[in-house]
């Protein structure tokens, strides 16, 4: 009889803090119609509007994972690969890539969808770091993340390099 492959689940424990949760528990998806009020004179959604939606979609995943208040500590990468036209749908998918002690990196992918053809395009990607705060507004530890899939593990690995870069930027800045 063929041997059954064991299901691999890695629990990554950064610290003392709440029960571990799988990445899928906090994953979020937001969909909106692009309206004329969101657009530039070319009829494409404004970059600032996309960034606002990215922050919200990412915050939902961070709130779900940590079950606490969160603040945006940094946004280290956003690109705009394809425009999204008025009348198209904008779809944002967010998930926690990695948790550290009190902070979490959330990845957001943005798609456009043409409602007439159903065609979807990948339009933006972003990485947003949130810090969980307690009732007094102090950073507090977030629950460990359970990695269940190869994709979860790839995102978790890649988040480490981005954290090194963003913290190097943070501590290089002179304090005024
Ligand atoms: C983010 C903030 C809470 C950090 O507070 P702090 O007193 O500097 O706290 P610490 O130095 O103890 O750092 C706490 C965590 O924030 C992380 N952090 C701080 N600045 C960061 C940055 N620029 N990028 C990524 N992570 C950052 C630290 O790495 C640490 O995470 P860890 O515990 O997982 O290692 C604080 O700077 C703040 O409140 N900023 C304003 C947030 C805000 O108003 N956002 C926009 C509106 S939501």
What would you note in describing this structure?
- By secondary structure, the chain is of the alpha+beta class.
- It has a single domain (17-172), classed as Thiol Ester Dehydrase, Chain A (Roll).
- It is 27% helix and 35% strand.
- The chain contains 3 helices and 8 strands; from the N terminus they run ββαβαβββββα.
- It has helices at 23-26, 47-66, 150-172; strands at residues 10-12, 21-22, 28-33, 69-80, 89-99, 103-113, 120-133, 145-147.
- The strands form 2 sheets. Strands 3-5-6-7-4 form a 5-stranded antiparallel β-sheet. Strands 1-8-2 form a 3-stranded mixed β-sheet.
- Strand 6 (103-113) and strand 7 (120-133) form a beta hairpin.
- The longest helix has 23 residues, at 150-172.
- The mean pLDDT is 91.
- The structure holds coenzyme A.
- Residues 71-74, 100-103, 129, 131, 139, 166-167, 170 line the site of coenzyme A (COA).
Extract low-pLDDT stretches: none
Rg on CA atoms, Å: 18 Å
Output the CATH topology: Thiol Ester Dehydrase, Chain A
Describe the global form: globular
Q: What would CATH call the architecture? A: Roll
Average of per-residue pLDDT values: 91
Brief sketch in words of this structure:
The protein has 176 residues and is α+β, with helices and mostly antiparallel strands. It has helices at residues 23-26, 47-66, 150-172; strands spanning 10-12, 21-22, 28-33, 69-80, 89-99, 103-113, 120-133, 145-147.
What structural keywords apply?
single chain, about 180 residues, alpha+beta, Thiol Ester Dehydrase, Chain A, 5-stranded antiparallel β-sheet, binds coenzyme A
